[in-house]
Specification:
Strand order of the largest sheet: 1-2
Largest sheet: 2 strands, antiparallel
Number of strands: 2
Radius of gyration: 18 Å
Strand content: under 5%
Helix content: 40-55%
Distance between the termini: 48 Å
Shape: elongated
Amino acid sequence: MLRSAKSVCSAPYRGTAVVDSVATFADRVAEARSRLGLTKRGLASKAGLAPRTVSRIEAGAPVSSETQLALEIALGLLPPSAEDDNDGGRDTGNVAIGRRLRDLRRARGSLPLSHLAFILGNVSEASLSRIERGLCRPRRGWADLLTDDYARTLGFASAKDLGDEIGVET
């Protein structure tokens, strides 16, 4: 159900006024999630977000541009030209590679991004998070990020083996 048919100011969410348009982002997310047959937990997993985040967004909470992009990619709400935009580092290839790296890290147990960032030494926890969510690619390319230290941390013998696993040339 749409919240509004015209631009009006809705009830504030935690002190922030939210402006509704023809179809708010919350409405678009809820509608697309329902159309795809996803639960909030399923959408959260697909977008790399916490289930509570999806619930709050569907309730009208403000959303960061990074979170919005992650949801739009997960729900297929981006126009084809936006998904193919290699200049922004947000193409679907980066999403797939980032998610594969996230899945490999999680398969190793409870390896926090902070520990991985410390081991690598050349990338921040925030950058690793953005890479795993497919919101960006490594600044100097995948080969620079996928070092032997990264590979060994994830249980691979070398960076080449890790690259082969996720489909990136190192």
